[in-house]
Amino acid sequence: MTIDALRADHLGCYGYARDTSPTIDRIARENVMLDWVFSAVSFALSSHYSMMTSRYPSFHSVGFRGGGCGEMEAAEPTVAEVLSRNGFATGAFVSSSMLGAANALPLARGFDVYDEETTHREPGRRGELRRWAKDTNTAAVRWMARHKNERFFCWVHYMDAHGPYDAPHPFGDHFLEEAGRLPPRRLEVVEDGAIGGIPAYQIFNAKTDGFGNLLKYESNYHNYVARYDGGIRYVDSCVARLIEELVRLGIYDNVLLVLTSNHGEGLGENDVYFCHGLTVGLDQIRVPLILRFPAKSGMSRVRLGAHSSLIDIAPTVLDFVGAQMQGAQGVSLLPLCRGDDVHRFDGRVIFSEIETQVAAMDLEHQVIMGRGVPEQPQFPYRHPTAPGENRVTAYRGRSGAAPENVFSRLGALALEYDAGAKREAKAATPAGAPSERSREPAGA
Question: How many structural domains are present in the chain?
């Protein structure tokens, strides 16, 4: 299951103080939890496709598109296709129109059922359609009940932690009283995709005049974070209900359960508020990853400090069932989960990217390299934009400047990755063909 826009550090099991995730915390305590997991890109469609194909965006067909892939013929295999060929029933249940087949056809490949029914419109973007997690559960459980006596692969996608932060009552208001005890921090409204304030599609309690001009709105930063956390609490309750249904069907102890997110969410870091897709900073790419193996697998509970990527999920799932995927750039995490060699990936470098940035992460540090501004930028990206401009972060709670050799080594690897990505793009684009790019809604 993927919980859209879920930051790892807003879950209790990853150290968050608020009680946002009692169910997820329990699953993490009793099973396998990875501490430092990064998405390959910081927006929805491309990240999910990287997850399903085990390829970085520069090396798969969707690339940095945020949509407009309804007629795309993609060549790389997906995990659903591989499992389908190996005799698995396959079903997907997505909760947003931006992942519907008309917008994201490559994601649907390999699924016998691709359920994209929606229940309501976003309040701030009437063209964006969504489905509440409880309704996604209903559809997914109905399908799993039909296939409970056979091997199946089911992808359940939840959208309720994603902005606008409008989780149903009482969840949306769950943390507002606590937020009200904090000193107010007022923010201006900015255009969707801009930095420095609240994106227009996120605003709450808006009042306008007869001409549509904004007169009043909820401006307190802390209330938006509280509503974000309320969305997480709502999804957590739906995860609990889904597990109850798996138990009722008699299959909970027989399934491999993978819980993660496609990307994080900016909550003020680098002046990015309540949005994502603008940088590859840790706020937007660090995600949770929790695995619950079948009871008879012999896997013990363990918390792993190794760094890993969402492109590792498909190889891990396929390794578990004895299958493989051609062209995978990720690695199976099964050896780590078994405790065979917990230090085997210590020297590994993981990448994350958007059009204007590429990040390289080793076991302790992240270097972000600027790629410059594309000819037709999706959003006014900010940090950094100059090609070759690097910045480094020590992300494991350590402070102080990173050693110069770490900066140089990761910076060189980021440059090497970028060069390989450009070679791949040149090889995949016919001479003289325009570069395809479709606009994804801000924060999508």
Answer: 1
The length of the chain, given as a count of residues: 444
- Summarize the confidence of residues 343-372 as an average pLDDT: 88
| Contact (Cβ atoms closer than 8 angstroms) between residue 286 and residue 9 | yes
Cβ count within 10 A of residue 396: 12
Nearest-10 crossing angle of helices 133-146, 221-248: 20
Task: Kindly state whether residue 378 falls inside one of the protein's structural domains.
Answer: no
Which residue type, as a one-letter code, is found at position 55?
R
CATH of the domain at 250: 3.40.720.10
Strand partners, 249: none
Read off the pLDDT of residues 67-77 as tens digits, 9 standing for 90 and up: 888 788 888 99
164 by DSSP, 3-state: which?
A: coil
In what helix (H) or strand (E) does residue 231 lie, and over which residues does it extend? helix 221-248
Question: Which amino acid appears at position 409 of this protein?
Answer: R
Alpha carbons 155 and 145: distance in angstroms, whole number: 14
Is 37 part of a structural domain of the chain?
yes
The answer to whether 287 touches 4, Cβ cutoff 8 Å, is no
